[in-house]
Specification:
flat; Four Helix Bundle (Hemerythrin (Met), subunit A); alpha/beta; 6-stranded mixed sheet; Rossmann fold; Gyrase A, domain 2
């Protein structure tokens, strides 16, 4: 089957690119242009016509990439045309008339590239991350993964386990022969080294996932403290409704920001108070849940009524900045208890000290993203594979100490499989769908 799709964004543009890949790619170009395919990798100007009537649709550039030296590993072509909707539709309609040609599914070009061994799973995922990157740090992380350092590391660890497995299987196949002591010591030493390396990678404070998904900030506190106003100020637009009526915000309101190149997801939450309203109570429950899962909490309170009893004291124990708003209404000095916490005194009404608050947020964010390990886990799938690998390796070491090689070999095989699943070295059909569904059509 030959697939095709628009690979550039939708909407009117100067240029649009339609990508075609598969055994009939050459036939598609010949049918549309009425001429032979151009020389490989040479942009060639051609008239693109209606297949049945030879009526001119557009004039554009044809690029021909014969397999296996193409992105997908198959014969592949790109048609660069004018980016009007009618031009794109007309050409795609003509391609659909050709036998065994169909519109590509999301991520199908990259999926074919993986299936043909042009890229591994980590690189495929990094391509998706690069396409969706909204900030500089996300772009750099995606490029780092694309360069293959993570793939190289996981393949090296997997190769070590395969070598250990060969020693263990030799012992199983020839039980009458004792393994040399140095081999037994090497099995244990190498297994422990791999286990240590994986645990070190896992101890990354989830930096890779935070960069990819966004640094989560929850604005939380009592009613009428200025939480929604703070969200609107940081977003530089009216995201949340602001009212003097207590309990206006009842659900979590979320917005994505680019904070000096860092991806940030800020959530405004329902004001916390004793309430008999069932809907508001559910909103308060959601607020506390969001705060618990946030990378940073902005605990906003009114400068006139500072009270650290109850939930406030709990919220400020970890990963929190105390934001004391309405300083313009403050008479006298702040409560001495405030100095115990990481705090900033602001006035959203007068715009006072907002720059200090943003600076504190950025410092917290930068500190969170400092990590010694250069290999970052960017997806929960990778983390689960590594955790499973640790579990199987730990079980193997216990059985190895007992010289229970038969059962230990199975643990070793499972550990090797988990590492292989990260880069696609084993049968991973069950996870391909979930990976490529997030791609855009045409990639």
């Amino acid at each position: 089957m030959t697939i095709y799709a628009l690979s550039t964004g939708s909407g009117v543009a100067g240029v649009a690119i339609i990508r075609i890949s598969g055994p009939d790619a050459a036939n598609v170009i010949k049918s549309l242009t009425g001429t032979n395919i151009p020389r490989p990798r040479v942009a060639t100007l051609r008239k693109i016509n209606n297949i049945n009537t030879s009526e001119l649709i557009d004039e554009g550039l044809i690029l021909w990439f014969p397999g296996p030296q193409s992105y997908t590993g198959e014969d592949m072509a790109e048609i660069q045309i004018h980016g009007g909707h009618s031009v794109i539709t007309a050409i795609q309609n003509e391609i659909s008339k050709i036998k065994d040609c169909r519109l590509a599914e999301p991520g199908e070009f990259t999926k074919i590239a993986f299936m043909n061994g042009k890229i591994n799973l980590l690189k495929a995922e990094s391509i998706a991350d690069l396409i969706s990157a909204e900030t500089e740090i996300q772009r750099l992380q995606a490029l780092k993964t694309m360069k293959g350092k993570s793939s190289k590391k996981f393949n090296e660890l997997r190769d070590k386990l395969l070598k250990i497995l060969s020693f263990v299987e030799a012992k199983i196949d020839f039980p009458e022969e004792d393994l040399p002591d140095e081999n037994l010591k090497k099995i244990k030493k190498d297994s422990q080294e791999v286990l240590y390396e994986i645990k070190k990678i896992l101890n990354d404070q989830r930096v890779g996932e935070i960069i990819r998904e966004g640094f989560k900030i929850a604005i939380i506190g009592p009613t009428n403290a200025g939480k929604s106003s703070l969200l609107n100020y940081l977003a530089n637009r009216d995201v949340a409704i602001v009212s003097e009526i207590a309990g206006t915000t009842r659900d979590v309101i979320e917005t994505h920001l680019n904070l000096d190149g860092y991806p940030v997801i800020i959530s405004d939450t329902a004001g916390i108070r004793d309430s008999k309203d069932e809907i508001e109570k559910k909103g308060i429950k959601l607020s506390l849940s969001r705060a618990e899962n946030a990378d940073l909490k902005l605990v906003v309170i009114d400068a006139k009524s500072v009270d650290f009893s109850g939930f406030l004291n709990d919220l400020l124990k970890k990963d929190a900045i105390l934001v004391i708003n309405k300083s313009d209404l403050l008479k006298g000095k702040l409560d001495i208890e405030v100095t115990k916490f990481n705090h900033v005194l602001i006035s959203l009404k007068d715009g006072l000290n907002i720059d200090k608050l943003i600076s504190k947020i950025k410092n917290n964010l930068e500190n969170k993203l400092i990590v010694e390990e250069d290999i970052l886990i960017t997806r929960e799938r990778h983390r689960q594979n590594l955790l499973q690998c640790v579990e199987h390796l730990t079980n193997f070491l216990i059985k190895n100490d007992k010289k229970d090689f038969d059962k230990g070999a199975e643990d070793l095989r499972l550990a090797t499989r988990q590492l292989g699943m990260i880069v696609g070295k084993v049968d991973v059909e069950e996870i391909l769908g979930s990976i490529f569904k997030d791609f855009c059509i045409g990639k």
